[in-house]
Amino acid sequence: MSAAEKWVYDNSRPTALTVPGRVFRAVHHLVLVSGVGAMVLATHEPVAAAHATLLALAFNVALGFFAVEYVVRLYAAAASLSAEPTHPWTARWEWATSLNGLIDLAAVLPFVLAGLLAWNPATINLFAIVWVLKLFRYSPGSGMLQRVLRDARESLFSVFVAFIVVLLVAATLMHVFEGPGQPKLYGSIPAALWWGITTLTTTGYGDVVPVSPLGRLVAGMVMICGIAVFALWAGILANAFANEVRRREFLRNWDLITKVPFFRDLGAATIADIAQILKPQAVEKGRTIIRRGDPGDCMFFIVSGEVEVRLAPEPRRLGPGGFFGEIALITGEPRSATAVAAKETQLLVLDIADFRQLTARRPELANVVTEEGLRRMERVRQSRGGGQ
Amino acid sequence: MSAAEKWVYDNSRPTALTVPGRVFRAVHHLVLVSGVGAMVLATHEPVAAAHATLLALAFNVALGFFAVEYVVRLYAAAASLSAEPTHPWTARWEWATSLNGLIDLAAVLPFVLAGLLAWNPATINLFAIVWVLKLFRYSPGSGMLQRVLRDARESLFSVFVAFIVVLLVAATLMHVFEGPGQPKLYGSIPAALWWGITTLTTTGYGDVVPVSPLGRLVAGMVMICGIAVFALWAGILANAFANEVRRREFLRNWDLITKVPFFRDLGAATIADIAQILKPQAVEKGRTIIRRGDPGDCMFFIVSGEVEVRLAPEPRRLGPGGFFGEIALITGEPRSATAVAAKETQLLVLDIADFRQLTARRPELANVVTEEGLRRMERVRQSRGGGQ
Amino acid sequence: MSAAEKWVYDNSRPTALTVPGRVFRAVHHLVLVSGVGAMVLATHEPVAAAHATLLALAFNVALGFFAVEYVVRLYAAAASLSAEPTHPWTARWEWATSLNGLIDLAAVLPFVLAGLLAWNPATINLFAIVWVLKLFRYSPGSGMLQRVLRDARESLFSVFVAFIVVLLVAATLMHVFEGPGQPKLYGSIPAALWWGITTLTTTGYGDVVPVSPLGRLVAGMVMICGIAVFALWAGILANAFANEVRRREFLRNWDLITKVPFFRDLGAATIADIAQILKPQAVEKGRTIIRRGDPGDCMFFIVSGEVEVRLAPEPRRLGPGGFFGEIALITGEPRSATAVAAKETQLLVLDIADFRQLTARRPELANVVTEEGLRRMERVRQSRGGGQ
Amino acid sequence: MSAAEKWVYDNSRPTALTVPGRVFRAVHHLVLVSGVGAMVLATHEPVAAAHATLLALAFNVALGFFAVEYVVRLYAAAASLSAEPTHPWTARWEWATSLNGLIDLAAVLPFVLAGLLAWNPATINLFAIVWVLKLFRYSPGSGMLQRVLRDARESLFSVFVAFIVVLLVAATLMHVFEGPGQPKLYGSIPAALWWGITTLTTTGYGDVVPVSPLGRLVAGMVMICGIAVFALWAGILANAFANEVRRREFLRNWDLITKVPFFRDLGAATIADIAQILKPQAVEKGRTIIRRGDPGDCMFFIVSGEVEVRLAPEPRRLGPGGFFGEIALITGEPRSATAVAAKETQLLVLDIADFRQLTARRPELANVVTEEGLRRMERVRQSRGGGQ
């Protein structure tokens, strides 16, 4: 793989934190929104007539952008992570047949075909709706959503089967009960199915409504089944989400924790314990993390970067592995000093509730933090005594 | 900061328990409800005509009240919690630019501007709807709600992106399938979007309804997606709520527990354990806490205040750190004595289920409580024997 | 208190398991359903005309029954659980002013007043709807529901405040945006509130629908808020329910377990552990509990009653404290014998999943059960060997 | 029981993994879908007229298939699992009176009766809707759904009672408030009940809408109760689902784990611990399980079958009890080798998050896995050194 391929590949990843990566994403999203917006507005007669040129411009810019993007991504796919030496075109083919590759292709292909085959442009423009699918690549939790749906697919599917069975049985019953009275609306089962789905999902348009007592009884039961379907799906997903959130946070924290020397010395059991409760927080350079006098409800561990703690005689700098903010948790008083990020800094936040539980469970960790906290308080007190 | 500033600041906090604080809150809420009510009713012709003077009075009283409140709060903001000596106007500016300060300003400013610029009063009065936002400051769980939404924002946002994508795709499809048949309702994608949102949220007004088979198929799938969105959000929030509730109760209890001498002597591990299960309960002076003969399903620890236990020979008084109600849990019989709050009292309640689990897990705690319970039972038995 | 009072009191409790108690409940429910049914049907002209006498009879029988019930319950209230000697009329007054007493009074009083004051009987009969409230006394989980709502009331109320705020703001905005176009439907804020509540709850009757673009935008956002309200309430209640269910089952099991000699000898920690996983099951006399050859997915402990295990040479009887069904869990094979309840029997069921986890956690318990299981298997094998 | 009975019985079970079992299921589902589809389409005039013969064919094939299926299943029921020697017809009678047996009978009987009694065929064909109930036997999670509903039935029923009470009270109030103004829609309580159920379930057809201020107030409260019912059911079911999913996975894993020699040597406590976190995965022969260079987020244990790990000098084969994929978890680097299923293989997957927590909690297990991992890495390094 060439350096250019690698550079493009790294900067075009959805989570790239580099400047070119961020610029690319901003432009991409802007182009996407304006392109889809232009397509949507072009179907609205008054706007389309008044701003035809502008809409066409936005649309064609987006189309061109996505066409170039496809070619570039295909080219850079040769640099995709792979320890085995494969032919660049093998890697490119793999990307082209992946879900993301197919979406990117579908965002461009219809327009190419339309140009070649001279299709009706008004109709073909509607294919631009495919562009919104490109957003999924950038949605932070969409991977999580997929895992949740996959883990719970069996239960969700069972409820869906029950949904279909209720739908079919209800439509048949309504065909029998309401068909004679309203032959146009319930005269066939496919017609009654339309009533069924609007009722079972509790949408209730009101274009098809039962009028016979038996029909209304069935309708009432179908509505209650609708509530049950909602409730079952919500119950299933609530459970699956809880598990997935826990897993995700644990892994993210584990990666961060093992970078901090302070934690690496603790045993695996303690690290596994801590990784379940810390919350990561990224801070830009110059941002105030805690301010003197504020109430203190958490302490911080530094993963990377540098933090300046503004103490009385002279500020102190803490680097990776350092921690601060523990004094307020020990004394229960407001923050005794202001802390500012001296560089772009990655922190791990320990909430006060978790601090209390953790120190109860892991006395060895509590000792380290508390002793350092007491030492610092002592130093502050001395310097203040000396400064007055 | 002056004493006056401090007094006003302390009494105007939403959680102030002082008499002036309570009176202020009552008046504030009354004025708010009557002011908003007057504005709402003034838009209803018959009422507005019949009670014009009364409505104007209620409205203007509220407006005046909020104007004065704004000035007073701005003045008192100088006393806001801060250990660092800052200029009073720095603190005031901070409050004025905080969310609460801006809401309080928005509650008054439009009317001042309207007076200066001679705007139409009927229209300008509608701005009074901003007043209801002042309620959030007093809503007990709104801080919790904010934390929950913040913790789960990534997942919630992912579902929202999926919501928007489904909405756009569905509207485009309906524009294609239903547009030719119902050009007025589905003739443009923006028009079809209105159908989409009423369907995807399962609201189903019924003003725009598909009639073609393909359109109905898409509609059915959109409704099912609507259920899924409900269910996903419910699942995400259920999980985030469980975590936040646990955190909040733990912190509240920890603060209370560490005030009780009885608990302070226990190790940190036991306190952290107990703090997860006790429930706080505030009792007014003179209120009966337990009544002799009632079934007993909990015991009590006293944080502050005083409780009179009405035993046979003479009542006994228990102060902070004392506990009562344990006998019924040990014997399983009804309450053997009545207990009344002799002062305003703060209690911690230990439910019978938690009592059983806790004593199993923490024998040292169980011993203290059980021995005291047995001693008391013995004493009651003796005094009864002697009294007969 | 007299013996008659006590007898009536005990048999009229909603959970009485005696024969008179069961008969009373059956009659009560029958009378209630037929009385309410008669009232409901009497408002439907055709039925009322055709069966006037029958409906009047059912209605009046119910009214008479509830009048007698009120007097009897008042009389028997003197026997309500109380260790302190109080005057019978004090206890009766307490019952009369309790929620149940007031509902029972409200079920009768309107009709007495109507008779005295010669009110219009057709209207007064509608008061019979109060009778359905009597059902709450018998609803098994209604106490639980109350605890859940009480525990979560703060969070639920916060969401409700947000609901009201969104409702008021949305109605004001719609009054501004839609009022000029649809003065009849959105001409005043109270009128717009009707639209607001049907939309925010996603009911969507469709009698009031926005038509302006801005109005539809607001409507779309209101619908999404409606989903969020659903989701927040569901999330809050899911959490509160989980806690309450755990508490209830623990207490129910603790009461049963401590009656079993086998468990009483175990330490408190083991009992507290077991009480979280056993499930109670009441079996009528003569009912088969397990059948030879069925797959075995649980074992049983006997709390009270007697069970006959039909072994090959001669059946064996097990009394309180005995256990059976453990062999299938140990061997993984189908049930080796049939077990039938020889008397009305109360069992505690240990699911196979919990059996595996419990025996891993509590080896001392596992040993007792496993050794007895092996001994029994040996005995069965010998007897079979001898029988051939 | 005969061998033929046994063969039919084993292959007709819904979970049979044999080839005849799979073929039978595929044919069964195809026949079912085409039969029900034919019945549904036959009620739609245009299709029925155009394809009468085809529809009749599909319908009658399905009917014949189910008739034969009933007879065969009845015959094979003699082989149902039972250790006790019973008469074949006793077992057959048991099956015929079970739920599945009754559904299978109801799928055929109406048509037999219709033939004998010369009923109207158009009407009788609608009974084919019973056929969809046969799907429940094959729905993987339907047993789980049943357990969940059974476990939570008490709470669900309480909410349902509250639902009915609100419905009745609301209908009576609306009859009073709206009856005079809209006598046709609210003139009787049964009529008002129809409004009630469409509103309480938030379906909101809009065919019956309150117009009086009091009526709308009641309607608003009913809608809010509707949300609460949704939320309560969702909360109850979320909780019950979480418990049931945990139970099911534990049992499934326990069965698999105890087949693996590697795990059998660990203590019961470790097995119970592991059984809660492993996820089973079945892999077809020849399928790639992990690919060299992919990021590694889990390791695998082999329950049955064989896996080929493609290492540099020569591939190695791992059989039941072996594990692989642990190196990437230890080093945090991409997969160092590709692994392919050499036979149909049953795996247990250990997620990286669980791996970290498990190794912290169970050092003895961690040691075994880590030592083997290090040994393998050493070997790979040597072979690579030698190969170059």
Descriptive overview:
Four copies of one chain form a homotetramer. Chain A has 388 residues and is of the alpha+beta class. Chain A folds into three domains: 3-139, Four Helix Bundle (Hemerythrin (Met), subunit A); 153-245, Helix Hairpins (Orthogonal Bundle); 276-387, Jelly Rolls, CATH 2.60.120. Chain A is 63% helix and 9% strand. Chain A contains 18 helices and eight strands. In chain A, the strands form two sheets. In chain A, strands 1-8-3-6 form a four-stranded antiparallel β-sheet. In chain A, strands 2-7-4-5 form a four-stranded antiparallel β-sheet, with no helix packed on it. In chain A, strand 4 and strand 5 form a beta hairpin. In chain A, helix 9 (142-151) packs across helix 13 (213-257). The radius of gyration of chain A is 30 Å and the shape is extended. The first copy, chain A, starts with a helix and ends with a helix. The mean pLDDT of chain A is 83. Chains in contact: A-B, A-C, A-D, B-C, B-D, C-D. Chains A and D meet through helix 10, helix 12, helix 13 and helix 15 of A and helix 2, helix 9, helix 12, helix 13 and helix 17 of D.
Low-confidence segments of chain A: none
Approximately what portion of the residues of chain A adopt beta-strand conformation? 5-15%
Q: Please trace the helix and strand order of chain A, writing H or E for each element.
A: HHHHHHHHHHHHHHHEEEEEEHEEHH
Rg estimate of chain A, integer Å: 30 Å
Name the assembly state. homotetramer
Total E-strand runs of chain A: 8
- How many H/I helical runs of chain A? 18
Mean pLDDT of chain A: 83
The greatest inter-chain interface is formed by:
B-C, 61 and 62 residues
Q: Strand order, biggest sheet of chain A?
A: 1-8-3-6
What can be said about the biggest beta sheet of chain A? 4 strands, antiparallel
CATH top level class name of the largest domain in chain A: Mainly Alpha
Structural class of chain A: alpha+beta
> What fold name goes in the CATH topology slot of the largest domain in chain A?
Four Helix Bundle (Hemerythrin (Met), subunit A)
